[in-house]
Write a structure and sequence with these properties.
The chain is mainly β. The longest helix has 18 residues. The chain is elongated and about 85 Å long. Strands 1-3-4-5-6-7-8-14-15-18-19-20-21-25 form a 14-stranded antiparallel β-barrel. A 3-stranded antiparallel sheet has the order 12-16-17, covered by helices on one side. A two-stranded antiparallel sheet has the order 9-13. The chain has 3 helices and 25 strands.
Length: about 450
Amino acid sequence: MAQAVRGVVKAGLMLGVAALPAAAQSLALPAADPVGIARSGAQVAYGYSLEAATTNPALLASLKEKVGFYVAGGMELASSQESLESNQKTWYTSDRNRAIGAFGLSMRISPKLTLGLKLDEPYLRHGQFGDDAPSRFLGDGIDLSAHRLEGQAAWALNPNMSIGLGLGVARLGYESSSVMRFGVPLDPSQPISGTNTVQGVVEQRVGQSGNKVVPSYSLGFRWAINPRWTLGATHQSGLKGDLDMSAGYRGASLGLFANDGLSAPPLGTGLRSPGILSASTPVAGGSGRLELPSQTAVGFRHRAHPMVTWEADLRWTAAGLRVPDFAQVSTPSGMVAAPAELPRGKGHFGLSTSVEVELGKFWTLRGGLALDQRAVEESMIEPLLGGGRTSAFSVGAGYKTWGGELSIGYQFRQSEDLSTRRLDGVWSSSGFRPTGTLERIEGMGHLLAIGYRKTF
């Protein structure tokens, strides 16, 4: 038996390591609790698990106890990087860490009806590049979050089949920044003209932020085909809303340049540059629409042995990922905007697998692997949203103590290496132009949580 357990764990480790070279960091989190993280989100059909009911509300009907709850907290750490082939210099994002939390509750009202409540974080993305990053004109900072709260209900149609429904709200938060340049004329308070010529350009970071509470729902189905096999399916709604964005300058000006955008500025440009910034007004981008896609998944769970249970889920993430446009600046000579917006997402499939091994009365070991197709077109890849092929490898453990179970879960995410020629550019007095320099984009992340579950 010990050899069989070691074989299962070894196979999971080999699969996870083999997947890393073709990996990328995902915008969606597999879960915000340690059990879901350790399973890499593969728990659509995992009955008798309160944490799995966060993914599929129909699983509430499978719980053996009348009342149960769990609480969890942890950290998400993410880093993106870009490297120029021309000078082999690499830039990394800062603002890497975020706290995450989750909560779940279940209560059986009758043999047919079980109610629940969940709090989770389905989407999270953040990062801030330095002042001289080559892609700064096309966006240099992002902070996207979604906190979802849903009341749940599950109905047992018969002892082996149930359906579930979740209704609630999600709070969407979004912040972005990009670096812009503005022509500095002889008289900054007046429009640029033949007599009011540009003497140089000033560089300034401009950002915007906003939030919105939007409706959310989830649907679920569970069918215990026999004591060993279970089929589950779930649909998580997309989260969409028009955010109330506010824009402004972020920090002091980043530099002064001549009209070619590269050389040192003429004398006097530094004295006039504060005038053009004070005469200009940052405004929210053309669209404040934030759309996070829906997810539909189907999964099979198999109890291969009294000690070993595994599951495989196939997930479809719909097209429609969209973030608000970058902030703009109204100057005396007209509106100045970023040269490009962040890309929109496309529909794609994902596959998740997990294995759980029960060691005696107290210990449970968990592991998982997740793979996803590209979420954006390869030609539009950039470091803020990412969107390349995704893989992740996770491990975790649970220990029964204090009348419940204390669990820890960890997931490692490594980004697919991609190259592009669209990000590096020069912004002169006549506007932005790409240089065509080859740039390498990479990224990685870690997800860690600890939690406690108790049933009555």
